[in-house]
Amino acid sequence: MGMLKSSLAFLVLALAFFLCFIMSTGDGSYDYFQFVQQWPPTNCRVRIKRPCSNPRPLQYFTIHGLWPSNYSNPTKPSNCNGSQFDGRKVSPQLRAKLKRSWPDVESGNDTRFWEGEWNKHGRCSEQTLNQMQYFERSQNMWRSYNITEILRNASIVPHPTQTWTYSDIVSPIKKATKRTPLLRCKQDKKTQLLHEVVFCYEYNALKQIDCNRTAGCQNQPAISFQ
Ligand code: 5GP
């Protein structure tokens, strides 16, 4: 009897582990979205080996991607099964808008950048947003708040030497959006450069929510915006 009980307990435990494993690796399982906008001059500043194709990077925040994410590991899921990118599903009207909001600021191949983002991230939430909706929704998110303008109105403008604290930069964005964004930085020697501002959205990508400060810019050294 005791033997049967312990075998049964083992079986239940094994099944639970198996289910946990399936749920953590399974495609299309995510909790929320990260909508990531980047500051192109920072991309180009840290690309030393292959400089950006455009010698004068854009001076406004552009889209990096819309990433379905898990609270336990915000870099997952990625590279899920699902429909491969199909350029014909981006209408000429939307394409024209995305060329401004979502350019490839590194090598200038916009379509290939969109393809990479859809295939790596978009496909993981295809049950919520199909390819057309994914790009349309991202465009609408980009239009909903102009980060460049929000920061400019708070006198946070590119400057070669001035620095800001994490909360100096978050505060005006939080005031404008009523939600907490996440800041991501790139390290360039001893300088911490502002690189990305992340907005978080709930599962359906409709309602903006507060982001958790799980990763991103450090408190020290102070943040440069150049
Ligand atoms: P993720 O794959 O997580 O969406 O983003 C990481 C990759 O996106 C990095 O390899 C980064 O270089 C790339 N990335 C970010 N911005 C751009 C861009 O404007 N153009 C291209 N081609 N890649 C980009």
UniProtKB/TrEMBL annotation:
An individual GO BP term: RNA catabolic process
Gene Ontology MF term list: ribonuclease T2 activity; RNA binding
One term under GO cellular component: extracellular region
The organism's place on the tree of life at top rank: Eukaryota
Family of the protein in this entry: Belongs to the RNase T2 family.
Cited function: Self-incompatibility (SI) is the inherited ability of a flowering plant to prevent self-fertilization by discriminating between self and non-self pollen during pollination. In many species, self-incompatibility is controlled by the single, multiallelic locus S.
Name listed for the protein in its UniProt record: RNase S2
